[in-house]
């Protein structure tokens, strides 16, 4: 009888130990799986972050290349012509025995205008300077530079109180607007540009409109405007870009920029 009692107690102890060991194994497996998920999540997060940084760097390089191309054309078309004209005028003045005050004044004006254009171009290239001035001011300076030749009317309107943007978003938004303006100059054959900044509660909405010839957005890839790049860059800052264009009303580019 005592032997049976002893065996029963031993069986209970063994059962408890087995259950405890099984429970411990289950807990270990759960902790192992949780830890593995954490590592996998961290790896995916690092991968996404690296992919985002790579996309951001690629977008920056593309924007810089496009900006440099437009600046190169502007230096050649505007500053280069002014300096060439000044050189011709200096040759004429050199051949004359008496100095022509009107001619000298024209030379001074042309050289001064060339210097002003170069300063404005330098400002538009500086991303560091962009961080020290409001986005609306930076775009306003671009419009002033475009409208200085008198061939195109430029308007800027702001709705709501201007709010700050993260540094990356501010730079990308400015470069998208800048590229939009350059596309208008190259392709739109427009006489008027209107830019609207709408500082809504949830996001900043930027509208860039021209009264030019317009185009078919369906065939945008064939005309080299790079509008798909604008959408990609807008997505990098958590926003989006929409293009509306037709031959009657020109083109409107609407950019949505989140505040955070």
Can you walk through the features of this model?
The protein is 65% helix and 15% strand. The protein has six helices and five strands. A hairpin with a 3-residue loop joins strand 4 and strand 5. The chain is elongated. A five-stranded mixed sheet has the order 1-2-3-5-4, with helices on one face. It has a domain of 127 residues: Heat Shock Protein 90 (2-Layer Sandwich). The model has no long low-confidence stretch (mean pLDDT 78).
The CATH homologous superfamily of the domain at 134-260 corresponds to Histidine kinase-like ATPase, C-terminal domain
Annotation, overall tally of beta strands: 5
Shape: elongated
Distance, first to last CA: 78 Å
Please trace the helix and strand order, writing H or E for each element.
HHHHEHEEHEE
Oligomer: single chain
Q: What CATH architecture of the domain at 134-260 would you give?
A: 2-Layer Sandwich
- In percent terms, what proportion of residues is strand? 15-25%
Quote the CATH topology of the domain at 134-260: Heat Shock Protein 90
Which class of secondary structure composition applies to the elements?
alpha+beta
The CATH class of the domain at 134-260 turns out to be Alpha Beta
On the 0 to 100 scale, the average pLDDT is: 78
Range of helix content: 55-70%
Sheet with the most strands: spatial strand order: 1-2-3-5-4
Q: Low-confidence parts lasting 5 or more residues at pLDDT below 50?
A: none
**For the report, how would you describe the main beta sheet?**
5 strands, mixed
Q: Count of helices? A: 6
Radius of gyration over alpha carbons? 32 Å
């Amino acid at each position: 009888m005592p032997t049976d009692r002893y065996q029963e107690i031993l069986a209970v102890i063994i059962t408890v130990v087995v259950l405890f060991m099984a429970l411990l194994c289950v807990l270990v497996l759960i902790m192992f799986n949780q830890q593995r998920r954490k590592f996998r999540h961290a790896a995916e997060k690092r991968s996404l972050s690296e992919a985002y940084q790579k996309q951001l760097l690629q977008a920056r390089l593309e924007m810089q290349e496009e900006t440099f191309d437009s600046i190169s054309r502007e230096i050649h078309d505007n500053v280069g012509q002014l300096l060439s004209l000044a050189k011709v005028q200096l040759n004429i003045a050199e051949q004359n025995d008496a100095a022509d005050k009107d001619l000298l004044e024209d030379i001074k004006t042309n050289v001064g205008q060339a210097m002003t254009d170069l300063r404005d171009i330098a400002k538009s290239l500086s991303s560091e300077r962009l961080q020290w001035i409001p986005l609306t001011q930076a775009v306003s300076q671009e419009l002033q530079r475009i409208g200085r030749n008198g061939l195109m009317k430029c308007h800027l309107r702001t709705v709501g109180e201007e709010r700050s943007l993260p540094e990356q978003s501010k730079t990308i938004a400015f470069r998208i607007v800048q590229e939009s303006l350059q596309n208008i100059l190259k392709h739109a054959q427009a006489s008027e540009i209107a830019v609207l900044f709408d500082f809504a509660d949830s996001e900043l909405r930027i509208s860039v409109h021209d009264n030019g010839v317009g185009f078919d957005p369906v065939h945008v890839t064939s005309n080299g405007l790079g509008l798909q790049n604008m959408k990609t860059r807008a997505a990098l800052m958590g926003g989006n870009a929409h293009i509306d264009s037709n031959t009657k009303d020109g083109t409107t580019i609407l950019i949505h920029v989140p505040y955070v």
